[in-house]
Design a protein that fits this description.
Number of domains: 1
Shape: globular
Protein name: Antibiotic biosynthesis monooxygenase
Strand content: 35-45%
CATH class: Alpha Beta
Pfam families: ABM
Largest sheet: 4 strands, antiparallel
CATH architecture: 2-Layer Sandwich
Keywords: Monooxygenase, Oxidoreductase
Number of strands: 4
Radius of gyration: 14 Å
Distance between the termini: 10 Å
InterPro entries: ABM_dom, Dimeric_a/b-barrel
CATH topology: Alpha-Beta Plaits
GO molecular function, one term: monooxygenase activity
Number of helices: 3
Length: 104
């Protein structure tokens, strides 16, 4: 398994709403076209209205590379910048877990 946790901070509330819309549109494509993407979730952070946390889990590094090469992901990566003031990315190495596709 290959995973990411990403914390996004939006510029303001209108940017957060536009970012959420972009995420929803992109998520439709991910669900429809990426069998190697096991989990792709977005969360609002309680008490932090401008923050979003993404948790992404891929079958393997190749599935992540496939995800990153999709035109809709490339478009997402380019468009998101207009809504964000910061992005923090952590690459994750699965140790143990329970869930779809998790065998540890």
């Amino acid at each position: 398994m290959f995973g990411l946790m990403v914390r996004f901070t939006c510029k303001d509330e209108s940017a957060a709403a536009a970012f959420d819309d972009l995420v929803a549109r992109t998520g439709e494509h991910i669900r429809a076209n990426e069998p190697g993407t096991v989990i792709y979730t977005t969360h609002r952070v309680d008490g932090q209205p401008l923050q979003r946390i993404f948790y992404e889990l891929y079958r393997d590094a190749a599935a992540f590379e496939t995800h990153e090469s999709q035109e809709y992901v490339i478009d997402f990566l380019a468009e998101r910048e207009r809504y964000l003031s910061s992005t923090e990315v952590d690459r994750l190495d699965l140790v143990s877990g329970k869930g779809v596709g998790v065998e540890h």
